[in-house]
Amino acid sequence: MFGAISYREIRMKRVMMMMIVWMLMVIIGTGVGADHKRNAYATMMYMGTARDYEFYVAIRVMLRSLTNLRVNADLLVIASRDVPLHWIHALEHEDGAKVVVVENLKNPYNNHDRFKLSLNKVYAWSLVEYERVVMLDADNLFLQNTDELFQCGDFCAVFINPCIFHTGLFVLKPSSKVFNNMLHDLEIGRDNPDGADQGFIGGYFDHLLDQPMFHPPPNASTLLNGTFRLPLGYQMDASYYYLRLRWSVPCGPNSVITFPGAPWLKPWYWWSWPVLPLGIQWHHQRLQTLGYRSEMPLVLIQTMLYLGIIIVLTTRLGGRPKLCHWGAADHRINVAIIQTSCLKAIAIFSILVSYTLPCLLIPHTIHPILGWALYLLGSFALSCVAISVFVLPMVAVLTPWLGIIGALLVMAYPWYDDGVVRALSIFGYAFCFSPLLWISMGKIGSSLRISLEREALFLPTRLTDSTQPDHASNKFF
Questions:
Q1: What is the pLDDT of residues 416-457, one digit of tens each?
Q2: How is the beta sheet containing 140-142 ordered, strand by strand?
Q3: What is the CA radius of gyration of the chain?
Q4: Which GO molecular-function terms appear in the entry (predicted)?
Q5: What does the pLDDT look like over 66-100, one tens digit per residue?
Q6: 368-390 and 296-315 are packed helices; what angle lies between their axes, rounded to 10 degrees?
Q7: What angle (nearest 5°) sits at the alpha carbon of residue 97, between those of residues 45 and 80?
Q8: pLDDT tens digits, 37-65
Q9: By CB atoms within 10 Å of each CB, which of 66, 378, 411, 442 scores lowest?
Q10: Predicted structure pTM score
Q11: Quick one: CA dihedral 390, 392, 394, 398, positive or negative?
Q12: Residue 370 backbone phi and psi in degrees, to 5
């Protein structure tokens, strides 16, 4: 009996062990399947432009903002092989993205500008493991979850231009057939008006303007077929905001802001705000997601440098340097007086350097408030150097500095009725301030001229004193 009971217990234990193993396999299998979702938000990254790092930061902020919105899709980056490995590592392990490394597609249109490799966007059609892909540019600012876009058809895009859709955001159904057709079109050099992705994809789907508007089906599991136009709310051009200083896009949810303007006015640059009011909104998202840890060491170093310059100039001993230089050699005096026009040019150039050099040294992707504060500190410190070296009036040299502060306050004023009033206020301020700037330049020139005349007045006396024989030293001869 004892042996029989033991045998049954052993069998029961074996059965339980097998059930546990089976359950673990099911759980592991479910986890692996859950790791790969049906749809994906994708963007691309390639190297070879002067702003590679800025776009890398923009992509990371966009990916993290999508994560914060709890999108039910994979985050995908189509990266060229020359993207640095530590960038790929950060995208995968810190931002939760999947990186697909590809070879750059050859651009047959001899386009040598920053869009030369933008045709890598064609790789989105090769992602056949997904049902739908939302392809994105890095300059998209998401305001809310847009997972309903995955219900759209084979191709869907927004017309921010009345006749041309924008490729900064579009929905596609991956297809090997479409991908191969596009590669063939690239090989034969099909007509492309701009030599980039905008013209190429726009030419491939040239019938989209005649298609119906996309409206998400009530059933979230329903997938539409065919091509559709997306409502403008999925690609709200930032320039529309600047006219009324608020969003009032009636068609579709106000979900995504895009910044298709000049590259140097993208929202991630510190000077984008308050020049463009929406810049601070992008930096607000970065502050909540990625932060500014990578830029802060350089900001602290520059801050200490500028503060050191100011402290040295305010506490240094001795008089100011002379504008003239003289010396003696072999009892002959060589006097070199700097010409007034040359001195003016050097002084004005030093002032220009004082106001431009800090702008070049500040990390481009720092927060605007930190960026402008560091710029004002740096320009003040370097202006003090010019004041000390050329014996210039402080108020005249710092007049542009005060004018910049005033312009920032005028642009950052948050209670304008609309963009027209804001623009008129900025132009009015510039018109009123320009005479003060002109007067300050005149005072700087007058100060330099007076200093030269003073040096020239006392120069003969100094030369006479320097040429008098020293009788005390010659009494032994």
A1: 999 999 999 999 999 999 999 999 999 988 888 787 666 555
A2: 140-142, 256-258, 236-237
A3: 33
A4: glycosyltransferase activity
A5: 999 999 999 999 999 999 999 999 999 999 999 99
A6: 30
A7: 25
A8: 999 999 999 998 889 999 999 999 999 99
A9: 442
A10: 0.82
A11: negative
A12: -65, -40
Alpha helices in 114-196 (DSSP H): 176-188
Which element (helix H / strand E) includes 382?
Answer: helix 368-390
Per-position DSSP letters for 411-460, written without gaps between them? HH-TT-SSHHHHHHHHHHHHHHHHHHHHHHHHHHHHHHHHHHHHHHHHHH
CA distance 147 to 223: 12
Identify whether the C-beta of residue 419 lies closer than 8 Å to the C-beta of residue 372. Answer: no
**Chain mean position to CA 173:** 31
Predicted pLDDT at 253: 86
Which of 402, 391, 386 has its CA nearest to residue 349?
386
Nearest Cα to 97, choosing from 64, 130, 52, 54?
64
Nearest CA to 200 out of 264, 105, 266 is that of 105
Would you state the structure tokens that stand for residue 373, as one six-digit string?
């504060």
What's the one-letter identity of residue 376? L
Do you know the residue count of the chain? 477
DSSP 61-116: HHHHHHHHTT-SSEEEEEEETTS-HHHHHHHHHTS--EEEEEPPPP-TT---STTT
Q: How far is CA 91 from CA 79, 82, 283, 399, in A?
A: 11, 15, 19, 46
Eight-class DSSP state of 137: -
Indicate the pairing of strand 324-329 with strand 39-45.
Answer: unpaired
Query: CB of 370 within 8 A of CB of 292?
Result: yes
H/E run at residue 334: strand 332-337
Q: What does the alpha-carbon distance between residue 359 and residue 380 come to, in Å, rounded to a whole number?
A: 12
